[in-house]
Amino acid sequence: MSDQVKASDVKALRDKTGAGMMDSKEALEEAGGDIDRAVEILRVKGQASAAKRSDRGTSEGVVASYIHNNGNVGSLVEVLCETDFVARNEDFIDFANEVALHVAATSPEFVSTDEIPEEAIARERKLFEEKAGEEGKPDDVVGRIVEGQLSKWKAEVTLLEQEHVNADKHDSRTIEQMREDLAAKVGENVVISRIACFRIGG
Questions:
Q1: Mean pLDDT over all residues of the chain?
Q2: What is the Cα–Cα distance from 59 to 33, expressed in whole angstroms?
Q3: Same domain as 142, residue 79
Q4: At 27, which helix (H) or strand (E)?
Q5: Domain with 139 in it: what CATH number?
Q6: CATH number at residue 27
Q7: Which residues, including other chains, have CB under 8 Å from residue 115's CB and lie 6 or more apart?
Q8: H or E segment at 61?
Q9: Residue 57: which of 202, 190, 200, 185 has the closest Cα?
Q10: Is pLDDT above 90 for 196?
Q11: Same domain, 79 and 96
């Protein structure tokens, strides 16, 4: 082991990320011994691996639920993976439960931006264009404003784009970042396939 990488740091990084010993060691060497930087390196590598797994079939998983303590709000989420072994994994189940809690808190309308109907995007774009046009700004400026507002709106209504409501616990990561991290950790494709939120009177 190189002078700048301590065995204790490798263990700490493995405990924090679930990565293998060699991957942790290489990430620490690349990061010059900086654990936070090594976490980022592992995350990027994990995302690349997750992208390669994204077309693999998912026929196992769990349905997780969350009911708020007042009994007036609840949610269901279906999270899929490739094997029953991972479906029983504690990290996988914890992730599904955290997603269910988030869905109950924020009521996203869609899982991903791909699910947003074109007519809904067109409707929002028209509203933003009308509002920006009323302010008398040049067309090129209006275009940039509208695209920025559309991106913000998509993030507001889409689960994967949202930062988890418990930002402190999850280091201000989005649901998609959490999903990618889990996929890298368990070595399987992980998909949030369906969500539903229920509110009394809603």
A1: 85
A2: 40
A3: no
A4: helix 21-30
A5: 1.10.286
A6: 1.10.8.10
A7: 158
A8: strand 60-67
A9: 190
A10: yes
A11: yes
> pLDDT tens digits, residue range 15-60?
776 666 777 788 888 888 888 888 787 777 665 455 555 555 557 9
Instruction: Say if residue 170 is in the same domain as residue 89.
Output: yes
The edge-to-edge listing of strands for the beta sheet with 73-81 is 60-67, 73-81, 191-199
Query: What's the rounded Cα separation, in Å, for the pair 112 and 40?
Result: 24
Same domain? 106 vs 123: no
Amino acid making up residue 178: M
pLDDT score, position 1: 46
Tally the domains of the chain.
3
Strand pairing report for 73-81 and 191-199? antiparallel
pTM assigned to the model = 0.68
In a domain, 92, yes or no: yes
3-state class (DSSP) for residue 80: strand
The answer as to whether 90 is a domain residue is: yes
Residue 2 clears pLDDT 90, i.e. is over it:
no
Whether residue 2 lies inside any domain: the answer is no
CA 98 vs CA 59, 108, 121: distances in Å:
21, 14, 28
Structural domain of residue 82, as residue ranges?
A: 60-111+158-199
Q: Are 198 and 73 in contact, with CB atoms under 8 Å apart?
A: yes
The answer to whether residues 104 and 200 touch, using CB atoms and an 8 Å cutoff, is: no
Q: How far apart are the first and last CA of the chain?
A: 59
Please work out, in degrees rounded to the nearest 5, the angle formed at the alpha carbon of residue 95 by the alpha carbons of 90 and 98: 125
Q: Is residue 89 pLDDT above 80, yes or no?
A: yes
Q: How big is the chain, counted in residues?
A: 202
Q: Residue 18, class by beta-carbon neighbours within 10 Å (0-12 exposed, 13-18 middle, 19+ buried)?
A: middle
